[in-house]
Amino acid sequence: MTYTNFTVDTDADGIALVTWNMPDRSMNVFTEEVMNELDKIIDQVVADAGIKGAVITSGKDSFSGGADLTMLQKMLTVFAKEKGKDPEKAAKLLFDNAGRMGALWRKLETSGKPWVSAINGTCMGGAFELSLACHGRVAADSDKVKMALPEVKVGIFPGAGGTQRVPRLTDQQQALQMLTTGQNLSAQKAKAMGLVHEVAEPSKLIDTAKAMIKNGLKAVQPWDEKGFKLPGGQIYSPAGFNLWPPAIAILRRETYGNYPAAAAILKCVYEGLLVPFDTGLRIEQRYFTEIMQSKEAAAMIRSLFVSLQELNKGARRPAGVPETRFKKVGILGAGFMGAGIAFVTAKAGIQVVLLDRDMASAEKGKAHSDSLISDQVKKGRVKPEEKETLLSLITPTADYADLAGCDLVVEAVFEDSAVKKATTEQAEAVLKSSAIFASNTSTIPITALAKNSARPKNFVGIHFFSPVDKMMLVEIILGKKTGDKALATAIDFVRAIKKTPIVVNDTRGFYVNRCVLRYMSEAYKMLIEGVPAPMIENAAKAAGMPVGPLALTDETAIDLAQKIMKQTIRDLGDKAVDPKQMALINTLVDTHGRFGRKNGKGFYDYPAKPAKKKLWPGLKDLYSQLKPEKVDYEELQRRLLVTIALEAARVMEEGIVTDPREADVGSILAFGFAPFTGGALSYIDGIGAKEFVKIAKGLQKKYGAEFKAPKLLLDLAEKGETFYQRFDPYAKGDVKKAA
I want to staple 68 with a disulfide (CB 3.0 to 4.6 A). Which of 29, 132, 423, 530 is the partner? Predict the structure, then answer.
């Protein structure tokens, strides 16, 4: 038989090699067609008496990225349509569809013939569940091999047997850790956990897999044999009693109950291990069906998988502009930010010219890359020779002439208009006419900076976040005269360094900083009201934020917050900043010398390691403290999320961001806006515009004008629309330049 996505070749020993190699795809993924073909291949292997067993592997560098989640979106769309007609029938349809993959893997493992998975690279989600259903698993001894069940990161969980097979192969503690965090496993780690049988040299991977079958591999899984015992003991055992109560408490501490899928994993494992395997699969299928109907799953799948992938593929890139392949990039300014940009650029294999006012400063900037890559070598994440390659790509210099031949120059000098003007003029004097000039600025409008350029069409903003090597989002800012080529080149660069681009029109603070400053400002207001600082920080985390607003201010520096406030007053007048908040920041900086983490004291005290940071006790002396029982804790949570979401809505109303995907993905990647909501706009859509406006009006009455809903939101509420309906990113295709 012939297949579109697979080839099946049987050798002289009667072992079928099933090679998965989807045409026109860079990575194998599960689609309806793929599963239908696998179903037929299982039948073929079973029916052919000449086949003793089968090895399944990939014809690509990676094994598989797992399920195509757009398939899950389609499943939910069908469910939503059917639900209106017949809710019971719709639920049954969703249940049956949710169990399709799990049933297929069960068919494979009970087929009566041995199967071995030969894992040659990335093996994620449903692909790893397929591998776990095989009777033998061999992984290549390569850095390319990463195995994981990462579904919890997009609001669902491994629903094709993962919650049942993993805890039957390894101890329950490691199983829960892997399943609830979606952690990546190396080949060696997976072997140590008992999830992989052998690790082989890449060139011997298939031979090793075939040898397992030749050597008499059983075509029966351990849990299907009589007398099977769980690794690490039963649920009701001393080991189980020591594990489960703390596991439930830890999950609650880490998630605050915001992630239904994580809680469902614990239920699946706990309940599933008390019953026979097939019953466990039905339990898993039931919970998976329930989670698939949650608003958290819908929002997270959309933002953290579908939208994220689309943006990473250049959804906002102008059509018809040839792609730029970067050979040489210039970085102006070798300070912390410029040095970080140089590092990620060199890591992408691009030659970097790192320029500063003198060689000593430029060399210091290169030393930052040396430090970062050396740390990765120590941790075994990269090889020593990769360090040498990366450092060889960075050329420190104080001579602008060395910028000749650069495709792109990124300016990351001090936030001073005069300094940026001089830098731009000196760089453009040696750049080729087609080169793009980008400014990494967080405060100065791009349109104003572009006036320093002799070719404003080639001038664009590329706003990185600190630390550059860890932060995955980059804002691309359009000046009034920025051309399509500059925008396309900026997107190409951000994609080349493996970060996610969002396109933003020019405004003070752009998108991310406008939202973040609202978050911090609301915390300052709470402090002034007398809300105890621990309640503010804990409320933020309970709301789903990874870092409390006071801790975030410390990370970015309190004296920077002071500078931003003072600049805002100079530019927009005294009324632009709350005088009480200005007084709070001045007290911290000027009276107490508390600048943030950088000088070891801010809203928190930062003692020497290993001691942990603690909130500064002096905070409670600045304002009369409310008794905790007098504070509405849930309202604190609501205030912190609503103030950010309202600012995101204002940004959409002003046309600063025009695509809801970018607003949502940007809010999660830049400052961790409660990921379970799907992002700032999805948070509003999830509540419903009408109900959200009602909440905002209630907060406005109690706390002030910053909770006033913009006209756009009032209009959405009146017409019963969502942001994704009003600003449909697919109405004219994926590519849509900011207007």
Answer: 29
The span from the CA of 491 to the CA of 504, in Å, is: 12
- CATH class of the domain at 513-726: mainly alpha
Q: Would residue 10 be called left, alpha or beta, if left means φ above 0 and alpha means ψ between -120 and 50 degrees?
A: beta
- Whether 436 and 460 have beta carbons less than 8 Å apart is answered as yes
CA distances 241 to 176, 236, 264, Å, are 15, 7, 19
Cα distances from 101 to residues 104, 123, 219, 275, in angstroms, run 5, 16, 20, 21
CA dihedral (561, 563, 565, 571) in degrees, to 10, reads: -150
At position 16, the amino acid (one-letter code) is A
Q: Is the confidence at residue 220, as pLDDT, over 90? A: yes
Dihedral angle of Cα 270, 272, 273, 277, to the nearest 10 degrees: -170
pLDDT in tens, 177-193: 999 999 999 999 999 99
pLDDT of amino acid 732: 65
* Residue 735 pLDDT: 41
Give 330: exposed, middle or buried? Use CB within 10 Å, 0-12, 13-18, 19+: buried
Any catalytic annotation for residue 592?
no
Tokens at residue 562, please?
């002071």
Does residue 52 carry a pLDDT above 50?
yes
Structure tokens at 268: 């699946």
Tokens of 402: 């060395």
Which of 135, 197, 368, 463 is flagged as catalytic?
463
> Do residues 128 and 150 make contact, with C-beta atoms less than 8 angstroms apart?
no
CA gap 191, 208 in Å, rounded: 15
Q: Closest Cα partner for 466 from 572, 598, 564?
A: 598
What are the tokens at 538? 């804990």
Other CB atoms closer than 10 Å to residue 1's CB: what's the count? 9
- The pair of structure tokens assigned to 522 is 């609301």
- Residue 351's beta-bridge partner residues? 328
Q: What is the mean pLDDT of residues 391-408?
A: 96
Nearest of 737, 178, 227, 170 to residue 491 by alpha carbon: 737
pLDDT in tens, 517-563: 999 999 999 999 999 999 999 999 999 999 999 999 999 889 989 98
Of the candidates 546, 723, 575, the one whose C-alpha atom is nearest the C-alpha of residue 645 is 723
Q: Which two tokens stand for residue 408?
A: 């792109």
The number of angstroms, rounded, from the C-alpha of 251 to the middle of its chain's C-alpha atoms is 20
- Whether residue 43 contacts residue 102, with contact meaning beta carbons closer than 8 Å, is answered with no
**Alpha-carbon distance values, 193 to 175, 224, 362, 398, 427 (Å):** 9, 20, 46, 52, 55
Query: What is the distance between the alpha carbons of residues 656 and 503, in angstroms, rounded to a whole number?
Result: 9
The DSSP-derived string for 178-233 is HHHHT--B-HHHHHHHTS-SEEE-GGGHHHHHHHHHHTT--SS-GGGSTT---TT-
Separation of first and last alpha carbons in the chain: 53
CA 335 from chain centre, in angstroms, equals 27
Residue ranges of the domains in the chain? 6-293, 328-508, 513-726
Neighbouring-strand partners of residue 27:
none
553-587 pLDDT, tens digit per residue, is 999 889 989 988 988 898 888 888 999 999 999 99
**pLDDT reading at 251 higher than 60:** yes
Q: Is 328-508 assigned to CATH 3.40.50.720?
A: yes
Distance CA 131, CA 118 (A): 8
Go through 119-149 and write b for each residue having 16 or more CB atoms within 10 A of its CB, e for each that does not: bbbbbbbbbbbbbbbbbbbbbbbbeebbbbb
Whether the upstream peptide bond of residue 549 has omega within 30° of 0, thus cis, is: no
Instruction: Report DSSP state, residue 594.
Output: -
Evaluate the omega torsion of the peptide bond into residue 610 and state whether it is cis, within 30 degrees of 0.
yes
**Chain CA centroid to CA 203, Å:** 33
Read off φ and ψ for residue 460, nearest 5 degrees: -145, 160
The class of domain 6-293 in CATH terms is alpha beta
**Is 226's pLDDT higher than 50?**
yes
213 near 52, Cβ under 8 Å?
yes
270's CB contacts (< 8 A; 6+ apart) are 235, 244
